[in-house]
């Protein structure tokens, strides 16, 4: 007797093809959404990218080219090779301006960083009032030109209210902006007054990222406020402090407007910072090629300082776990 065996034909589950199509459709849909997000992102980035190309990259490249030429706006640029750089190396006024700028940067960064860090710690440890933070930021809302003019009037040797108060205290009037010794420190402190609130708020934001339980644990262990500052606050604030230092150093090397409205480089070139010397060479003596060479030198100096700061401060690494 023969037994006939019949095996049912193998079939895919009825939902398999549908599920595969669904997965494929989902992948295609995600890809389409990604493309749409990319186009939207490009649309938002386009204005900033256009501004970067037109107002930053192109002028930088044009300035580098002009640094190898003799150009005065009245005649076509004449290629002179490295003549402008040779002149710059042998120019005593350039080196004096660079030294004056370094003096300004050291005073400005030193005082501003210490003051801003103190204000930020006080804001974080004592009060976090939004009104107080607004008051601290108020001087930053004033332009450098207005701040310079206001302090020029306040510190005027004969009529300024600052010198009137000093005279009323029985002290001789101080020529803050008319004396070679006082001029650069005064300009540096004017800019400290204007920028310290903004710098403090940047550091305050960094302090907010430090977990509060670290301070609580330190208090339980009997650590003082001073010890917690050096053992907890400073190490964990280091990346933010490093970035703030890089930003403020770059900005300090580019000081111009405060000098222009208060001392115009005087007295006796005591405040003739590098940016002002570049400006006077270009728009005062129409030596645009030489001014461009000094601008390129400043760009190289700032790039080197920024890279050195970034590496020494380990700005890209944090001690937070």
Automatic annotation (TrEMBL):
GO terms for biological process: transmembrane transport. It is found in: Cell membrane. PROSITE patterns: ABC_TM1. The chain crosses the membrane at residues 40-61, 104-123, 135-154, 236-256, 288-308. Belongs to the binding-protein-dependent transport system permease family. This is Sugar ABC transporter permease. Its main location: membrane. It is a multi-pass membrane protein. GO terms for cellular component: plasma membrane. Signal peptide: none annotated. Residues 98-309 form the ABC transmembrane type-1 domain. PANTHER family: ABC TRANSPORTER PERMEASE PROTEIN, DIACETYLCHITOBIOSE UPTAKE SYSTEM PERMEASE PROTEIN NGCF. Residues 1-33 are annotated as: Disordered. Gene3D superfamilies: MetI-like. It comes from Streptomyces variegatus. Keywords: Cell membrane, Membrane, Transmembrane, Transmembrane helix, Transport.
């Amino acid at each position: 007797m023969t037994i006939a065996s019949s095996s049912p034909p193998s079939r895919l589950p009825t939902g398999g093809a549908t599920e595969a199509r669904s997965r494929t459709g989902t992948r295609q849909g995600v890809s389409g959404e990604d493309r749409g997000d990319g186009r939207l992102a490009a649309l938002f980035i386009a204005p900033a990218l256009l501004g970067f190309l037109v107002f930053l990259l192109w002028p930088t490249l044009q300035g580098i080219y002009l640094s190898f030429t003799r150009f005065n706006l009245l005649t076509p640029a004449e290629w002179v090779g490295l003549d402008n750089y040779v002149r710059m190396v042998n120019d005593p006024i350039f080196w004096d301006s660079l030294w004056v700028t370094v003096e300004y940067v050291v005073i400005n960064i030193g005082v501003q960083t210490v003051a801003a860090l103190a204000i930020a710690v006080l804001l974080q440890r004592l009060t976090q009032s939004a009104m107080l933070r607004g008051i601290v930021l108020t001087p930053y809302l004033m332009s450098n030109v207005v701040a310079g003019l206001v302090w020029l009037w306040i510190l005027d040797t004969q009529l300024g209210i600052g010198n009137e108060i000093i005279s009323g205290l029985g002290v001789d009037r101080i020529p803050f902006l008319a004396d070679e010794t006082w001029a650069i420190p005064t300009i540096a402190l004017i800019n400290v007054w204007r920028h310290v609130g903004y710098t403090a708020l940047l550091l305050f934001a960094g302090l907010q990222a430090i977990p509060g339980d670290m301070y609580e644990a330190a208090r339980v262990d009997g650590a003082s406020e001073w010890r917690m500052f050096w053992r907890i606050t400073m190490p964990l604030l280091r990346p933010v402090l490093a970035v703030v230092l890089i930003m403020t150093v770059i900005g300090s090397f580019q000081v111009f407007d405060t000098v222009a409205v208060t001392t115009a480089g005087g007295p006796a070139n005591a405040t003739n910072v590098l940016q002002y010397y570049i400006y006077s060479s270009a728009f005062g003596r129409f030596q645009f090629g030489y001014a461009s060479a000094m601008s390129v030198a400043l760009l190289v100096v700032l790039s080197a300082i920024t890279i050195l700061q970034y590496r020494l401060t380990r700005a890209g690494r944090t001690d937070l776990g």
